Amino acid sequence: MRGLDIGIAGDRSQVDLPKLKAGGVDASFFALYTSADLSEDEAATKVLEMLARVYDALDMYREQAALALTPEDALRNKEKGLISIFLGMENGSPIHKSLPLLRQFYRMGVRYMTLTHNGDNEIADSAAQGTRWHGLSPFGREVVDEMNRLGMIVDVAHVSDETFYDVIKCSKAPIVSTHSCCRALASHRRNMTDDMIRTLADHGGVIQINFYPVFLSDLYASFYEVKGEKASPRPGVSDVVNHIDHAVKVGGIEHVGIGTDFDGIEVTPKGLEDISKLPKVFDQLKRKGYSEDQIELIAGKNFLRAFNDVISSSLRA
C-alpha cells in the first residue's frame, strides 16, 4: 500500500480500484508493509498511518469498495457490487513484544500477519537472515497461539525454513504463505521447497504464487544481480503458470492460490504489469488443461476456505 489514490487508475500503481475491476478481482488483501530497517516504534507508527489512509480511501470510495473482515463479508460486498478490501500486516515488528498490540491491530481489521520481513525480529527468524532464534522465538510461539485464538491467519512468507517448521508444529489452524514461489523451479531462499509445500498442504494451508521475477526464474535473478533489470530476460505469464502448476502437482489443487505482491515489487513479469492483466494467467491455465472449477479454486476459493478454517478453529478454541 503506497499511499496512492486507489480510486484513480494511475501509471504508478499496480493495484487500484479501476484495475481491480478491469481484472475481474472481487476482493484483495492490502498489505500494511514495514521494513525490517525500521525500529518497532517507527513500524507501529507507519502501520497506523497506512491503516488511516485505507479507512480514508474506503470512506471516499464507499460506492465502489468496502472493508471485509471475513469471507462472508466479501460475498455480501460482491452482491452489492462492491470490491472487498481485506487488511494484512507484512512484518510482525509493529506489535513490539506485546500481545495486547497484536489484539488491537486485529480489532482495527488486520486479518493476517506475516511474521517477519527481510530481517529476524522478536517473533521469528526470516529467510533473509535466519540466525537469531533458529525458528520461532518463545514470544513467537505465544504470537502463533494468540493468532490462532483470534482467528487471524499466520503468514509464513518471508520466514526461514526453520521458522516454517516451527510454525507448522505450533499452529492449531491452517497457515498460509501469501506470496511465495517454488524452490524447485527457482532456488531463491524466499521460495518454498517441495517438502514445505507438501507439509503446508497436509495441514490445510495454501501457497499463494508471487509474481516477482527474481522468485520466478534463476536466470532472471542472476542477470538482475549482475546487470540490472534492463539487461535481464524478464519472466512472463508462462513462468507464473509453471509455478502454479508445480505447486498443484506437489500440494494438490486445493492448496494453491495467487499472491501477486503487486505494489510490493518494482519489476513485474512481462505481460503482467498490473492486476488488470490477471486474466492472462487464468487463460493460460485453461490452455494447460485446468477446468473452470479448478481455476476458481486457485483464483481465491482455496484461500477463502483456509481463512474460514482459521476462523472455525478459533471458535473451537
Task: Characterise this structure.
Helix content is 44%, strand content 12%. It is built from 12 helices and 8 strands. Helix 10 packs across helix 11. The longest helix is centred in the last third of the chain and has 25 residues. It starts with 16 loop residues before the first helix and ends with a helix.
What value does the Rg take, in angstroms? 18 Å
Mean pLDDT: 95
**Measured distance between first and last alpha carbons:** 33 Å
The largest pleated sheet is described as: 5 strands, parallel
Give the beta-strand count. 8
CATH topology of the largest domain: TIM Barrel
Number of helices: 12
Approximate strand percentage? 5-15%
CATH architecture label name of the largest domain: Alpha-Beta Barrel
Q: What is the CATH homology-level superfamily of the largest domain?
A: Metal-dependent hydrolases
Q: What structural category characterises the helix and strand content?
A: alpha/beta
